[in-house]
Amino acid sequence: MPAWMKRPIAREGSYDSVKELMERLELHTVCQSAKCPNQGECFASGTATFLIMGDACTRGCRFCAVDTRQPAPLDPEEPARLAEAVLALRIKHAVITTVTRDDLPDGGAAHFVAVIAAVRDASPGTRIEVLTSDFGGRLESVDTVADALPDVFNHNLETVPRLYTEVRPGAEYARSLAVLARVRERHPEMPTKSGLMLGLGETHDEVVAVMRDLRVSGCDMLTLGQYLRPSAKHLPVAEFVTPEAFDALAAEAEALGFSAVASAPFVRSSYHAGEMAERS
């Protein structure tokens, strides 16, 4: 790896206590399931991005470390346990994401609503950011989650349209844009957010074109980060994008009107999410 991709792993502070709490409450985090490079830093600061509806996904995206297999039935007690974790960790900005559940009639939208309600009941002062799937194109499911009024609605495009078939089999670029556009149409005041991984073979111009599409869809916030290969069975890294290139893209995104932009090699969609929401 290039020099800018090397850094010490943070494990001080409450890293172990956060991990133990998640294990005790039988909760999953995207930090662990997706092998996020920032989990040491985030756990050490007492934060985590919750992964609901299990740790098995019905899709097989070739960039993602989450297992692809038949998921277990939904756990009706999960919302209460997740709310307990938010309260115990004194989380001010909770990011709640999910595996894709194409096996469920609503894609898991009602479960999202139950989680939002449980967190709001247990910790009314906590901001809630949802990072959803595309719900298989079911816009009524998008409506269900948006109508629960999360503080931020996030849905990642992940890559440029030319690479969708290779990177995101089962997903569609236009469908993902439609998720964000639907939220903006239904709740114009609700901040929306999306993110891309770079280093999969996309070009600079393609990334800028996606940013323009996001703005047309009403997207407010943008994250750009370096793709890292989780294992040998996943897509190889085509390029390690330089910090200077990330900075240049950030400048272009800000010029396009995004209210908050995070663009750097180690940025992930939920990294410093609270700070981004405050800036927006």
List the helices and strands and how they pair.
Blueprint: H1 15-24, E1 28-29, H2 30-33, H3 39-44, E2 49-52, E3 56-57, E4 67-68, H4 78-89, E5 93-98, H5 109-122, E6 127-131, H6 139-146, E7 152-154, H7 164-167, H8 173-186, E8 192-198, H9 204-216, E9 221-226, H10 243-256, E10 260-263, H11 273-279
Parallel strand pairs: 2-5, 3-4, 5-6, 6-7, 7-8, 8-9, 9-10
Antiparallel strand pairs: 1-2
List keywords for this structure.
single chain, 280 residues, alpha/beta, TIM Barrel, eight-stranded mixed beta sheet, two-stranded parallel sheet, 11 helices, 10 strands, 38% helix, globular
In words, what does this structure look like?
The chain is an alpha/beta fold and 280 residues long. The chain has one domain (3-279): Aldolase class I (TIM Barrel, Alpha-Beta Barrel), CATH 3.20.20. Helix content is 38%, strand content 15%. The protein contains eleven helices and ten strands. It has helices spanning 15-24, 30-33, 39-44, 78-89, 109-122, 139-146, 164-167, 173-186, 204-216, 243-256, 273-279, and strands spanning 28-29, 49-52, 56-57, 67-68, 93-98, 127-131, 152-154, 192-198, 221-226, 260-263. An eight-stranded mixed sheet has the order 1-2-5-6-7-8-9-10, with helices on both faces. Strands 3-4 form a two-stranded parallel ribbon. Helix 4 (78-89) packs parallel to helix 5 (109-122), helix 6 (139-146) crosses helix 8 and helix 9 (204-216) packs parallel to helix 10 (243-256). The longest helix has 14 residues, at 109-122. The mean pLDDT is 89.
